[in-house]
Design a protein that fits this description.
alpha/beta; single chain; 14 strands; 28 helices; flat; 12% strand
């Protein structure tokens, strides 16, 4: 919603009077007729309703905290206009009417053209092409490049302001996050539980928010608290009770309750449930119910489609689902959390806050519940921690450490490995018993063990209980080799999914670009793999942005209407002119929506690795798709 002065005046009038007001009363107050008032209300409520209407008139929805900074202001500076356009045409894949946009910005035609030209130049190196056609402004880019752009925005936000405890500490005045960490870590160690850094960070933040604000309901035991207790094992109840008792000693002047700590601890307890019982007999729906489960899956799907951010991380889903369920209960019980110290999140992490606002919109759309600014900040924390964790893990191995002794050898070894090899691996779990390994094998890439073990499913590397500098260097070499194997294996799996023998054309004799596209698309259509519009869509793409890269052409449509996923590969007998390049290797790409995110590594290979002349020459002589995959595997 765009907030103009008329909208503000109406909203402020309703907020100040804090009662039902009919259209005539509001019209007298704002010097407008009733019809104009009704129109303004409909415009304000478009997309995310904040004004309730009935036979009594209008009023602001109960519990809704009006914050005009949550709404879109008309961009005034060149940078604001740039950010608005980027969000619309790159992130949301929209096209904008040029006349309407210029009028909306209230700038001259020459200023508009200059700013668009500057925008075009700044994005060309990112393979994102800003285009104008038929009075429309839009962007042409591969999904991979849009995704890289979105992730780079996140990285820029995290570069100086990561979601580490040290950086999040500035949002708190009284609570010391390191002190909470030591208390929690000590109690978990006492009961021989290990919690990964992602879960621990999120848990500590929630405990800190609970302690610093200590705003609870009316003191009665809630149904949600009863549900927590009924779904928790005896050992979990003991752990959380001790966390409450220790925090009460440390923060004796705070008025948080045991119930508060249990609710904040749901994130941690679901991590424990995940490790011990979830894989056998515990489902997401059993934990949070069908409404929240369906809502979470809808959020994951739409955030990935709009922002190219993949929230489908099993550990994240469980904790985030519990948080959303708790937020829905708070909203329906009119429990407003005043966490003013985290409001700065929207200034320091604007992109992630924007993603969180979109999630709150999905929640409103599906449940009718409006998330206030503080609830949106909570969501920002969850999303931010996940994205940072995913960014750090993308090029690492998930590691399980097996040690004879937990308290002395295991903990010290984990600390040393984390310090020395953090660029290659993430220590996910520490165990002392071989029988525990199977519980975590699904999430583990490599096992480091202080004693000899035989595991068929996961690579095992022996490490001494007290490794010196030489031992660490040997480990580094072995782990780097396993990381390389993992990358190649993932690439090979993706290639085998999309590259087919019947779509491999090793000796074509095309004379032109049009000849190649026409003949290949006709064959694909005859095999029932594409719609009859596919060929025209490829030509439309070529008219807007030529799809050749150095010595390779990678043709695909701009629409999301593909009915099958494949890569058709043609090796022409002679080079043909494709835009400004001469190509012999021709790829025709078709991707269903659900496969687009998985295809980025194949794009990466065909646009970078084969620019190597020696590798490219080998591709000219391949006779089968197996030969192609072998070359890719050997040289990736």
């Amino acid at each position: 919603m765009i907030v103009n002065n008329e909208f503000k005046q109406l909203i402020i009038a309703l907020k100040q009077h804090n009662k039902w007001m009919n259209a005539s009363e509001l019209g007298d107050l704002l010097n407008k007729n009733p019809r104009q008032i009704r129109y303004l209300v409909s415009q304000i409520n478009n997309g995310n309703p904040i004004i309730e209407s009935s036979s009594k008139g209008y009023k602001i929805i109960d519990g809704y905290d009006i914050d005009f900074s949550d709404y879109m202001q008309i961009p005034e500076s060149a940078n604001d206009r740039k950010q608005y356009i980027i969000e619309k045409i790159i992130i949301h894949h929209d096209s904008l009417d040029i006349d309407e946009l210029r009028e909306y910005f209230c700038i001259s035609d020459s200023t508009f053209k200059n700013e668009i030209q500057q925008l075009r130049k700044s994005f060309e190196p990112l393979n994102i092409h800003i285009k104008t056609k038929n009075n429309k402004l839009f962007a042409i880019a591969k999904d991979r490049d849009r995704q890289l752009f979105a992730l780079n925005v996140v990285k820029d936000e995290l570069k100086n302001n990561s979601f580490s405890l040290d950086n999040v500490q500035r949002f708190f005045n009284k609570v010391h996050l390191d002190a909470i960490k030591q208390i929690v870590f000590g109690i978990l160690n006492k009961y021989e539980y290990y919690i990964d850094e992602y879960s621990l960070t999120t848990y500590i933040i929630h405990l800190a928010l609970c302690i610093e604000n200590h705003k609870t309901g009316d003191g009665e035991t809630t149904d949600f608290y009863k549900e927590i207790i009924s779904n928790s094992s005896d050992v979990i109840i003991k752990i959380v009770t001790e966390v409450f008792e220790e925090l009460s000693k440390y923060y004796s002047d705070s008025k948080f309750t045991k119930e508060d700590i249990f609710e904040a601890s749901m994130l941690m307890t679901t991590r424990i449930i995940d490790r011990s019982t979830k894989s056998d007999n515990y489902s997401l729906e059993a934990l949070v119910g069908k409404e929240t489960t369906d809502l979470i899956l809808e959020i994951i799907k739409r955030v990935n489609r709009i922002y190219s951010i993949n929230l489908f991380d099993e550990r994240f889903i469980y904790r985030f689902a519990v948080h959303i369920k708790n937020a829905l209960i708070r909203a329906r019980s009119n429990m407003i959390i005043n966490d003013n110290q985290i409001l700065n999140l929207k200034e320091e992490y604007p992109f992630m806050y924007h993603v969180a606002k979109y999630i709150s919109y999905i929640i409103n759309e599906n449940t009718g519940i409006i998330m206030n600014t503080n609830e949106i900040s909570y969501i920002t924390l969850h999303v931010g921690v996940l994205i940072e964790e995913a960014t750090l893990k993308r090029e690492k191995l998930n590691c399980l450490v097996v040690a004879n002794d937990y308290y002395v050898i295991g903990k010290n070894l984990c600390n040393k490995l984390s310090y020395s090899l953090s660029d290659l691996l993430t220590i996910d779990t520490l165990v002392t018993n071989i029988d525990e390994i199977n519980k975590y094998s699904k999430h583990i890439d490599i096992i480091l063990s202080t004693f000899k073990i035989n595991i068929d499913t996961t690579p095992v590397i022996y490490v001494g209980p007290f490794p010196d500098a030489n031992d660490i260097e040997k480990l580094r070499s072995s782990i780097a080799n396993q990381l390389d194997i993992k990358k190649k294996k993932n690439l090979s799996i993706n290639l085998k999914r999309f590259i087919r023998d019947d779509l491999f054309y090793p000796e074509t004799d095309f004379d032109t670009t049009a000849d190649a596209i026409t003949n290949l698309c006709d064959d694909l259509y005859s095999k029932g793999l594409v719609l009859d519009t596919f060929k025209n869509e490829l030509f439309e793409h070529e008219s807007i942005a030529i799809s050749s890269y150095n010595n390779v052409a990678i043709a695909h449509s701009l629409n999301n209407t593909d009915i099958s996923s494949f890569v058709a590969i043609a090796i022409n007998k002679k080079p043909i002119t494709w835009g400004v390049n001469n190509v012999r290797l021709i790829l025709i790409i078709s991707l269903k929506n659900e496969d687009r995110k998985e295809f980025k590594e194949i794009f990466r290979f065909f646009t970078s690795v084969i620019s190597n002349g020696k590798i490219f020459e080998k591709l000219h002589d391949i006779k089968s798709t197996d030969d192609l995959i072998d070359i890719i595997y050997e040289n990736s």
